[in-house]
């Protein structure tokens, strides 16, 4: 299939992740990494077609998936909150129409999961999962309840700070992100190895901010959590197209 | 303060043990609908560094259609409706109580190499061997792990593939699925230690 040589279209790659952004995979303070973090160095995968594309999912979203307080038999127990923000890439460009999925513990700090058996009450009206698409400006919003802190067996008297798990796709395989959102001024940060696995200077980006203006009077407190995904490498120069 | 310095990437965190509350979808493993002609099952077991199955992991797959095309505007050849009806390109499967996962898909086509660098002349017929990009999420993984599935029927293309060629020969096998039946491929993932899967830095 020899074809005449022609200028091959180019793909702007995604910019490298700066040092100090993510946690090291091997982080002994978080014990579960011990048997699960790879020991070998990863092999570099240059960004080509499969990496600069990705699923542009618009489902499976049903009405009400953005409101976790709507239980089967009534409203979930707890402090009602609005969690909202903008998804952008590191160039500052908003990421529209991208799927945002969340899951969290209930107000008492218990997950509606068969493996979570610590003695805190379950809430029959709270399953703890939600999903929404960002709008044309990259904005998203959930209504939920503030999750409680919960103990775990990682070390003596270990407690996870209250958090909401977030999962995002962006528009390319390279942009896929799973993270956790925290609440301001949590006294449990200092003893939490998962929060502290992320280098200082970056971990603070996972803390939401209380936003009085977005609070809905007589209804719900509001917390803003903006999310930044990887952006494109700057193209050094413009190239004429064939 | 998440808004002070735009451009600063949001750090990754583990999915933890309870990802099942938020992530799996009923049709997650269906890259193509049931009954699709030519459909195959690709799956395997996820093992930890002690050789034990990982029962709380989730695998995601992303791939081209059988023509090697993506229905995505950033494919420089243009977004195109998939060659196979109902093809989503994306699969998501949580591991079960024996650490097993699987997706139903059709085999991807080969891809031309569009180099990421701004200058790249000639060699327009260099192709990447058919492959599937994979993300692995689990408790104990502070960031996702990325790997690739190649297929055993493509020996010649695999030998010429730029990524596979960059992997030490003795570890290349961890990236190639095993044919168990004409319509079934096994791809086990070993997170750590003996036979550790080659993971990729993107
Ligand atoms: Fe959690």
Walk me through the structure.
The complex is a heterodimer of chains A (242) and B (202). With 242 residues, chain A is mainly beta. Helices cover 3% and strands 24% of the residues of chain A. In chain A, strands 2, 5, 10, 11 and 12 form a five-stranded mixed sheet that branches. In chain A, strands 4-3-8-9 form a four-stranded antiparallel sheet, with no helix packed on it. In chain A, strands 6-7 form a two-stranded antiparallel ribbon. In chain A, a hairpin with an 8-residue loop joins strand 8 (163-168) and strand 9. Chain B is mainly beta. Chain B has one domain (23-190): Protocatechuate 3,4-Dioxygenase, subunit A (Sandwich), CATH 2.60.130.10. Chain B contains two helices and twelve strands; from the N terminus they run E-E-E-E-E-E-E-E-H-H-E-E-E-E. Chain B is globular and about 40 Å long. Chain B starts with 39 loop residues before the first strand and ends with a strand. The relative contact order of chain B is 0.21. The chains are: A mainly beta (242), B mainly beta (202). Chains A and B meet through strand 1, helix 1, strand 3, strand 4 and strand 9 of A and strand 2, strand 5, strand 7, strand 8 and strand 12 of B. Strand 1 (43-44) of chain A pairs parallel with strand 12 of chain B. The structure holds fe (iii) ion. Residues 160, 163, 165 of chain A line the site of fe (iii) ion. Chain B: Residues 67-86 are annotated as: Disordered. Chain B: Residues 67-78 have a biased composition (Basic and acidic residues). Chain B: Belongs to the intradiol ring-cleavage dioxygenase family.
């Amino acid at each position: 299939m020899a074809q005449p040589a022609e200028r091959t279209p180019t793909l702007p790659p995604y910019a490298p992740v700066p040092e100090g952004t993510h946690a090291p995979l091997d982080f002994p303070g978080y014990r579960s990494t011990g048997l699960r973090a790879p020991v070998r160095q990863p092999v570099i995968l240059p960004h080509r077609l499969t990496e600069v594309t990705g699923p542009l999912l618009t489902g499976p979203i049903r009405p009400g998936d953005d409101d976790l307080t709507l239980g089967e038999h009534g409203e979930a127990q707890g402090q009602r909150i609005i969690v909202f923000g903008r998804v952008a890439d590191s160039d500052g460009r908003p990421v529209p129409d991208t799927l945002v999925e969340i899951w969290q513990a209930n107000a008492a700090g218990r997950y509606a999961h068969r493996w979570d058996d610590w003695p805190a009450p379950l809430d029959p009206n709270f399953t703890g999962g939600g999903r929404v698409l960002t709008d044309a400006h990259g904005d998203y919003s959930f209504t939920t309840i503030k999750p409680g802190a919960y103990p775990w067996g990682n070390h003596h008297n270990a407690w996870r700070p209250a958090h909401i798990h977030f999962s995002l796709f962006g528009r390319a395989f390279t942009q896929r992100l799973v993270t956790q959102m925290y609440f301001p001024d949590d006294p449990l940060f200092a003893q939490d190895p998962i929060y502290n696995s992320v280098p200082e200077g970056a971990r603070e980006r996972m803390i939401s901010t209380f936003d009085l203006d977005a609070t809905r009077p007589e209804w719900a407190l509001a917390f803003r959590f903006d999310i930044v995904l990887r952006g494109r490498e700057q193209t050094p120069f413009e190239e004429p197209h064939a | 303060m998440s808004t002070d310095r735009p451009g600063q990437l949001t750090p990754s965190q583990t999915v933890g043990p309870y990802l099942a509350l938020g992530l799996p979808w009923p049709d997650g493993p269906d890259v193509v609908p049931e009954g699709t002609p030519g459909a195959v099952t690709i799956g395997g077991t996820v093992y930890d560094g002690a050789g034990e199955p990982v029962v709380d992991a989730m695998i995601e797959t992303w791939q081209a259609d059988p023509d090697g095309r993506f229905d995505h505007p950033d494919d420089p050849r243009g977004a195109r409706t998939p060659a196979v009806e109902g093809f989503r390109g994306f699969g998501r499967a949580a591991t079960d109580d024996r650490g097993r996962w699987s997706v139903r898909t059709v085999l991807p086509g080969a891809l031309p190499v569009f180099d990421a660098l701004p200058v790249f002349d000639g060699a327009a017929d260099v192709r990447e061997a058919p492959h599937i990009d994979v993300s692995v999420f689990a408790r104990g993984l502070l960031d996702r792990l990325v790997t690739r599935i190649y297929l055993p029927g493509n020996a010649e293309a695999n030998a010429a593939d730029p990524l596979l060629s960059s992997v030490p020969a003795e570890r290349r096998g961890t990236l190639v699925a095993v044919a168990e039946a004409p319509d079934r491929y096994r791809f086990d993932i070993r997170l750590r230690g003996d036979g550790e899967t080659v993971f990729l830095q993107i």
